[in-house]
Each structure stands twice: as structure tokens, then as C-alpha cells.
Design a protein that fits this description.
8-stranded antiparallel beta sheet, 10 strands, globular, Jelly Rolls, 5 helices, 205 residues, alpha+beta
Length: 205
Amino acid sequence: MTSTATAAGSYRRRPGVPARPPFAFTVTAPPGWEAFRGDAKGLRDDLVALVARSALWPTLTERQRLGLANVLRSVAGVSAATGAVATMLRVGGTPVGPDALPDVASLSLTWLRTAPVLADLDLARLVVRDGEPVETGLGPGVLARRVESTPTGADQITSQVAAPLPDSIWLAVLTGTTSALEHAPAMDEALRAVALSLRVDRPER
């Protein structure tokens, strides 16, 4: 027992690497959000097609459509780059002004494999720094928010929840972003709801 603890402690604590877990899991999209497989090869086209079929699309100018399509492609790119296994999307109403774009919010779920150490709240705090306690469907987690600059120079709010699956090498990370600062409280509410809905189905030991 002592030697095991010493060996585990000799490893530098790292958040883990994205991977698809060997167990089934479910997560529920909040009302008004659409859910997709985050690792689907056609995610970019699926996101654009969803909005193109909506009542919003005919109200947009060609410039707005191109801008919105670029934003959605960026969402798909980030999803792929972070190893997300589920991605959710919410697009706002018709923007005010011919050059404005609709507000876009996204949520993604990534699993981090933390082997050779077990996932715990200390690892969660490496992913979500300066966070506050939050309850999730897996148990206790950590929630934090930050303001980031996009490549276009605009600000976006990013909120994250990290929660360890007890007695496992798996850490769930939920990331939410919104392009509208005034929608940050609604993003937090959606993120908390998704975190609470997360469930896993793994064999009894």
C-alpha cells in the first residue's frame, strides 16, 4: 500500500489526455440547444446545415451568412482539436445591423484519461484554475470563467467545469463559450445543467 502511494506520487501531476472512455455516458442538452457528436467527421457541415435550415437563415445577408458559417467552422475546429465527444450549439436571433452576426454559444464535453494516477479534484483544478465548487452528475467538480480575445479581436466568455469520475482515471471537462458578454449568466446556467445531467454506465465492481 505504501509503495503504491509512493510510486503514484512520483509522477508529475498532469491533467491527462483526451480520449474516448470505455464506458457509456449520457448528457442532456438544455432547451434551445442542439446536440451533436463532437468527434463526427462531418460536424462542421452538420452545424452549418442546422442553421441553414432554420428560420434565421433567410433573414441574414450574404455577408452575415458567410460570417456565421466561419464561426460554426471554428466551433467544429475547436471541438476536434480538444478531443470533444459531444458538442452542443445555440444560435441567437436576427442581429441588429447589416454587419452584426447572430450570437453563437457552444458547449462541449471532453474526457481526459489521467493514468497512471486516479482522477481527483486536484487534477480538476489543474484544468480549471481559480475555480469554485460545483455539483455535477459525477459528484463534486470545479467551475471557472474567463474572458478571452478571439482572432477577430472581440471578447468571448469561456466557462469550464471539470469533474472526476470517482475511483477512475477519467476526468470530464465541459467547456462553454458565448460571443455575447451579456449572455454569460445564461451560459453558466446551461453549463451547470449539462454538468448535472452527465451520467456514466460502467460495470459494477
